[in-house]
Write the structure tokens for this entry.
Amino acid sequence: MFCCTALAVCLAACAAPDTQRVVYLADYLTPEAAESDAVPAVRAALARCAEIGATKLVLPGGRLRLRPDRAAEKYLFISNNDESLKRIAFDLAGLHDLTIEGCGTELLFTGFVSPFNLEGCTNVTIRDLEIDYTRTFHSEGVVKATGPGWLEIEFPEEYRCDIVNGCLRFRDEEGTVYPFSNLLEFDAERREPAFLANDFWLSGGTIPAEKLPNGRVRIRRDDLTATVGNVMVFGAAARYNPAFTLADCRGVAIRDVDLYHCGGMGVIAQRSDDIELSRLVVVPAPGKNRMISITADATHFVNCGGYIRMIDCVFENQKDDATNIHGLYMAVDRVTGPDRVLLRWRNSGQYGVDFIRAGMRLELVDNDNVETYAHRTVKSAERINKVYTEVTFTEPLPEGVERGHVVAADERYPEVLIKGCRMRGNRARGLLLGSRGPIVVEECYFHIAGAAILFEGDANFWYEQAGVRDVVIRNNLFENGNYGCRGWGAACIATGSRIPDRATSRYHRNIRVEGNTFRVFDPRIVHLYCTSGFRFAADNTIEPTTDYPYLLDEQRPFVAYDCDDIEIEKRN
Amino acid sequence: MFCCTALAVCLAACAAPDTQRVVYLADYLTPEAAESDAVPAVRAALARCAEIGATKLVLPGGRLRLRPDRAAEKYLFISNNDESLKRIAFDLAGLHDLTIEGCGTELLFTGFVSPFNLEGCTNVTIRDLEIDYTRTFHSEGVVKATGPGWLEIEFPEEYRCDIVNGCLRFRDEEGTVYPFSNLLEFDAERREPAFLANDFWLSGGTIPAEKLPNGRVRIRRDDLTATVGNVMVFGAAARYNPAFTLADCRGVAIRDVDLYHCGGMGVIAQRSDDIELSRLVVVPAPGKNRMISITADATHFVNCGGYIRMIDCVFENQKDDATNIHGLYMAVDRVTGPDRVLLRWRNSGQYGVDFIRAGMRLELVDNDNVETYAHRTVKSAERINKVYTEVTFTEPLPEGVERGHVVAADERYPEVLIKGCRMRGNRARGLLLGSRGPIVVEECYFHIAGAAILFEGDANFWYEQAGVRDVVIRNNLFENGNYGCRGWGAACIATGSRIPDRATSRYHRNIRVEGNTFRVFDPRIVHLYCTSGFRFAADNTIEPTTDYPYLLDEQRPFVAYDCDDIEIEKRN
């Protein structure tokens, strides 16, 4: 994000003819506030935007420091992140037809504060800015020595830590605690998850540790291993502060944003339509020697509709997948009347993310094979609390509805275009595609520790509704995937759904793979089950590499079982 | 609470002539629900009460089990307890002119659920019921052996625990974690805090521990001491679930309630008027061999008005004071205009407890001597978030308003009557009296580990507005107080305010002590500072005992400094 573009945009903004409806943050900001906490100025400027129905909010350029102290406060339930009473710097709730012209401004946050919250917004664009934090929500240290059941870690100064009750705790210079719940080793040279590295999940949110006289910290756990020189990442325990939270929005564009850090997902959208991400660049902050960019998925879309477009984005080194596009399954707790069910969330990451509305068409789904066996229309929905909702339908329930079955919205699936995006170095997988609308993935680059493209969705573990209907994967470069944890994917393009009864399930349908190049040390290109209709065209190219060792017996590039209509065309 | 009274009341309720406006919980309850979870039935019955404007809700008698699963949910800021998204069994918000006839029903809760929430209620009476929990929020174990820096504890079966990262964790049979943050030793014979016992505050919310082959748990900390045979109480880390929460209510009576346990204060009332507690009995559950009743103060009143009456109550073995009646001080963060200040809470237990309203008269107070130096009337108050509020006054601020000064409401102080109450065995103090309305304490029994009656209030630590104006303490029996931690009080009746500049402060005024009996091993009867007007009448009786050893040099029964008009009458 360099000056020439930013300047041109700012000049354009300044020269806007309808100056009455442009708000300049600079008018609310003293130099002292910019250097200490611009949040009160942001709130005042946004209040002015709401008051006059502004079409533009222009940021001043340069660096703004932003803190939680005087930020807006809301209890938010954000799917696949963590609910909490949050502080929000830019709370755009209820704003419409507004562009935030970042003018290249660096938004530098400190502490537990969410950058942008969009609720019930229509036609909002955010562009040309950077987001970073003075202290990351995760922590990183270099492995300096190892032994049986211990690692010696050297933490850079910014990851202050102490030992409490014999266990490790991270705090910043203000005393704020940064809890962690997992460890993952990253390769210091390749700057990606270490070869075959797996997550160490930590119970109790810490690990036994001692500070050594040389200033290092020795952490202890029986199964702990790592390579000296690599970076051990202490993953944030919760996802309280995504960078962009969208709920019940329509027409949101995020363009030319460099997202260096946040405490949760980069963009999480729920119950929203028509979302465009252009040149959203998620990478570790330049010059700060961090391994990790953001602490969870780069993007994530839940029960969205209209279009989802990701164009020319970069998703690197975030602590989870590049994207996940899916609906939500709520489980039947019990049938409470001929036309009534008590539903509950089974995945705590979905608590409170209500999506069921009167008039909505729900599918009733057998959790064993994830197949839809009936549809019903919602007459009314009574929210009991964040876990339970009771739904009455316009008609009686069919026979056989059982505890454990699930329901999901069966309407308004988004059309998805992912084009020209570059993904590498992150934990786990690339694209988790679960929309039943048309999906195109083209001209992307994948160097992913697990599967590059995964068809997930299940009704027993994550409770994420998926089951694609029309997917085109074309002209992408898949380079050396599946170098990370074995559990992150069985091939470049794979089914990953936890479906107990696979024989009776054809959950995913109509996937075409055309004109892609697979430069791979791992021969496993496609691994499918529960799929009906898959074509791997002759114009795909597979180029073997020896960039990583391949340690498995499996040599088949194409594996498919419990599938129909699988076509692997002969290549030249 | 025995059958004859309960039966008579229930018969009376059943025979109410206006049967249309009586709701019977039994009509919403199956026997299975009563034994598993009556909460959905309670919610349905309360919805019916609201619908018809019921005058009575009649409980069925017997035992009802109640769980958080399908309870109402609200984010509540409750002063001196802990804010959170709470589950509530009886959410009476907005109800008026209603009596809940308990009919002796035993409400037996499981998990993190608050029994009663009253918000914006007028003329509500709750009577004749018992409250207990299947698993307490604190934990108790018997000290079986001690050594340098360790104790061996034997936990009864109900306090299941495991060791995580070398530290102790309590969980119930469902896996719910019960966090703790402090230890306090109780005398197993006397069933009260052990002689001179002090709190061990635990950082990190746990303590290093190991399970021994004999089933005991050895906990480790350098300064840990206790007497073999005594009970170590692992105090609950948070106060999420008070039994009765009152906010913005008028005319609430709680009568004939046996409160055996809850996870916070027994009755906490904020911004409420006209509260009567009659025969509220807070004691450890009979027959369950528990040392502790509830986990915090028996009662607590914040910014209340009208009358507060506690008559014939029993407050025993709760983990904090019997009562505390005070206002709240918000601190000046900065002066933001000639007539404007940015205020902030300094005590996190007060976060979100907004009390400042347009039209309210605030006092401006010097935090050094806690003296009021000016008054202003609120023109408007803008809540920024749970910590900050910006206030604009109808007039300019006086000279000299500084960061650190505090403001409080200076109006509608409650008239307090505490009569015939019995207090013993609890942690810390008895009555913390801070109302500027007339206060009468009579015919009570005190056997308190610290001061029986304390005049607190400060503007630098707890930020609780006090400063009494008219107190009568008469015909009470004070028996062997101050046997606990030295910090809990310097005499039976004492000032306890943290006032840096005592010479210029006369914070408390006009206290009369008449006709009381002091049966004491500790000669310290009265200890005052910053008090103007105190009379200890000739008809008080002091009877020395040798029931506990007295270990201090201080032999003066009456100490007063930085005071005016102190009168200790000669006794016969």
In short: The first helix of chain A runs from residue 3 to 14. Helices of chain A lie at 3-14, 31-36, 39-52. Confidence is low (pLDDT under 50) at residues 1-15 of chain A.
